Amino acid sequence: MYNLLKGKKGIIFGALDENSIAWKVAERAHEEGAEFVLTNAPIALRMGQLKELAEKTGSEIIPADATSVEDLTNLVEKSMEILGGKIDFVLHSIGMSVNVRKGRHYTDSKYDFTTKGWDVSAVSFHKVMNVLYNKQAMNEWGSIVALTYMAAQRVFPDYNDMADNKAYLESIARSFGYFFGRDHKVRVNTISQSPTPTTAGQGVKGFDGFIRYAEKMSPLGNATALECADYTISLFSDLTKKVTLQNLFHDGGFSNMGVSDAVMERFTEE
């Protein structure tokens, strides 16, 4: 370990169980010397194992509905009290599609479901930054990171309306990131991660087949949840102080591939 986050304080959204990228980020942040608060929606706290992570990392848990500005205000205020000062890093690892959960096809979306998923997956990021910005809760050179996926730029049919949510999330990162950088010297980035077998990821139709396809397409192979956590830690650290407004692909090279030899072999007649 390198003590990359020694003395830094943060908030980590979205850890559910040991398969979560946010869970791995929390473990790595703790190993690198950070203190932080863990948060998730009350229903997720009942479903997941966050208490175990809190005990392991010496962290406190503050339940918060990320779509509620009131809850987020309470979260930020209490976090600063617990941590004894302003925040240095925030991870937004939140995503949910009711249409996917209910098996609704993209061409037959139920728009009440669409609105709910959009609010949870994307608008929540704006709300989080709104509270942090207006309360001046972030230290200068702080870092805010949200997790996204390449379906924001390319068509992955079974990713459904989550693709739209991720596109909006990335736009929010750029737009709010400008003001956060200009006014408070805070950087805002998104990480576009390989398909990863998290609880949420495995809920997407055809996920197992796609993760094998991505593995064959990527010259370095798929990035794991732990590797994504390492990358996230680098963005929280002082080593990346001038990186902002970026959508950063962490996918073994998949995002720049047209086709690979391994994939072509499946379609080439002997």
Structure overview:
The chain has 270 residues and is of the alpha/beta class. It is built from 10 helices and 7 strands. It has helices spanning 21-31, 42-47, 50-57, 69-83, 98-101, 111-134, 162-184, 207-217, 225-236, 261-267; strands spanning 9-13, 35-39, 60-61, 87-92, 138-148, 187-193, 247-250. The protein has a 7-stranded parallel β-sheet, with helices on both faces. Helix 1 (21-31) links the parallel strand 1 (9-13) and strand 2. Helix 1 crosses helix 9 (225-236), helix 4 runs parallel beside helix 6 (111-134) and helix 6 runs parallel beside helix 7 (162-184). The longest helix has 24 residues, at 111-134.
End-to-end Cα distance, whole Å, is 49 Å
Portion in strands: 5-15%
Beta-strand segment tally: 7
Helical amount:
40-55%
| Strand order, sheet with most strands | 3-2-1-4-5-6-7
User: Can you summarize the main beta sheet?
Assistant: 7 strands, parallel
Helix-strand makeup class = alpha/beta
Low-confidence stretches: none
Average predicted confidence as pLDDT: 95
The sequence of SSEs as H and E is EHEHHEHEHHEHEHHEH
Number of helices: 10
Radius of gyration: 18 Å
Overall body shape: globular
